[in-house]
Input
Amino acid sequence: MKRIINTLIMAAVGTMFLVACDDPQSPGLEYMPDMYRSPAIETYVDYEFPDSATARLAPVGSIPRGYKPYPYANTNEGYEMAGQQLSNPLVLTEKTIKEGQKLYTSFCAHCHGKKGLGKGSIKNAIYGAVPSYADKTPNRRGDRSMSELEEGHLYHAIMYGLNAMGPHSSLIRESDRWKIVAYVQTIQGKDPLAKKTEEPLAENAE
Ligand code: HEC
Output
């Protein structure tokens, strides 16, 4: 009798093994399936949205946390307004200008030249006419010379670029843009340290 029971148990266990292996795709019996299959929506899978992107775009008009809008449009009017209204919010020191020079060397010198005289190392023909910041003749926009550009014009040029020069707003943070502006002013023959600022930019502290 004991033997028969043993044989039956062996047969039952054997069948379970065989049945378990029947479908290689089947996970078999799952203990707490939620732990295997997360109920959360996966990022880029087809779900219930018509365009099947589960990573949704932010609603129109949303702005990222900490984002500071730049109120001047990429037009001649915006450029003129920036030139009239913007002024460097940093408290400038010799150190700021040195930092500006370093940033300038990384971001601008390959086109504008180490000394800002328009003789960068890039040889492509479209960068053949990079102007010198020290030019006293009217610039491409025609209304003033490069050496007469105000700090707001310089800042605006960094934000949007101009023709062959691309925008640099996403590459250089605000305080660094102003450091570059101050350095470029020294090439223009100005002394940015002569100007005092009352309301320093918070980032100046770094
Ligand atoms: C890829 C090459 C390139 C880089 C990089 C570049 N520039 Fe320029 N930049 C130009 C060219 C070309 C012009 C002339 C555009 C024109 O007049 O059509 C120009 C023009 C300018 C002007 C004159 C704008 C005006 O109002 O007339 C300023 C100011 C300027 N750049 C500043 C900078 C600064 C500061 C940087 C670094 C943050 C920089 N550029 C990086 C190519 C470059």
